[in-house]
Amino acid sequence: MALTLTEAQRLLLGIISSVESGITTPEEAVTELADLKAKAVKANIPTFQADYTLENFQSIRDAYVSEYESSYEPTYDTSTDVDYDPSY
Amino acid sequence: MLVIGSHALRIGLEEVGKRLNRAPSDLDILAWPGEADYFILEANLTVEKRVGNKWLCRAPDGRWVEIEIATTGSSSLDYLRWEFEMTVSTAADFYGVVIPVAPLEMLYSLKRAHRHSPRMFHKHVKDYNLLREIVKTDALPEITKKRYQETVEREKLRTPSLNKSTKDFFDDKVSNRTFIHDQIHEVMAFGDRPMFEKIKIDPNKVACSKEKFFALTHEERAHCVQEEVYVIALERAIIPMLFEGEGMATPVEAYKWALMRICTTLCSGWFREFALENYEDLMLRYNWTYTNKFLKAVEEGRIRRIEK
């Protein structure tokens, strides 16, 4: 069955979520995204937009690590301290 | 001088047999001007920055110490007076200086005063609800009210007016331009029809009825908020990414962000308060298949794109 726009969008969400949870690396995600975009072109889906870079995937993963994994650090590690916000 | 913030919360929780779910990072202090100078000298702090009545200092161990100076007419002055007159606080040693620690009643008041601020919301909302369960009622309502106003003014917190037509309300720069908001609600509805229809006052206005909302069961109220969260997450993060080539978003972060917006600057009054007080429950109810539910509706033609 030919790839549809919504199926391509589902696959994109899957790639992003896999990076976020650490199942795939940002580098692997870039390759997977390139494959997906090639399939979208082949299936003639010009409206599929997904111009994301390694940095985009890296920031998704970094945000997850910073928020979830570091909050369970057993030590009094200050490496994740927030920057001072002068607007406060 | 008083210790507030996470350090005070950790100490206060330990006194009632509970523990803080994180390691406190920076140290927050309320102080009279003279006391601040004394503490800086005795604790060997370095003042890095002064922003208004807040002094940001670096401690010898490299950690931040934020000192809020009590000024005339400010809530910080009221907190210091309240503590001096009303309670006997626990004291603890910080950098060689023994400082009284704000009791949980005061920490609850402080959290309550900035519970609608997006700044570090996810941390504060958990603290707020934990304190609310322990303290039950606000023992310092007038000071809380004053500090709340200070927060609103400092952070320029505003919520949109709901007394508008649906068309005017969504005619902004942030809503998606691909699908109609009410149609997204229809396809994301928990039941046959969107939950908000059960609580609307006027079918053509955005405003809803408090009485109708609280006449619903808790489950229905949670669904009502959650439906709004899914719609906002889709409309402001997922749809712009998938259909408009905008920035990358993850479904769970979009949901979390949308819930934060409902609890802070997108909604107000009883709806926002319900969302805030049930934050953890609403997070636990997160269903990761919501994006698929929406895309299935697109596939089946149950929602149509806006014609341009």
What is the gist of this entry?
The complex is a heterodimer of chains A (88) and B (308). Chain A has 88 residues and is mainly alpha-helical. Chain A has helices spanning 5-20, 26-42, 54-69.
Provide tags for this entry.
heterodimer, A: 88 residues, mainly alpha, 3 helices, elongated, disordered C terminus, B: 308 residues, alpha+beta, Beta Polymerase, domain 2, 2 domains, five-stranded mixed β-sheet, two-stranded antiparallel sheet, 7 strands
Number of strands of chain A: 0
Multimeric organization: heterodimer
Which stretches of chain A of 5+ consecutive residues score pLDDT under 50?
70-88
Helix count of chain B?
14
- Label the structural class of chain A: mainly alpha
The succession of helices and strands of chain B, N to C, reads EHEHEEEHEEHHHHHHHHHHH
How many individual β-strands of chain B?
Answer: 7
Q: Assign the CATH class of the largest domain in chain B.
A: Alpha Beta
Separation, N- and C-terminal Cα atoms of chain A: 55 Å
Most extensive chain-chain interface: A-B, 32 and 36 residues
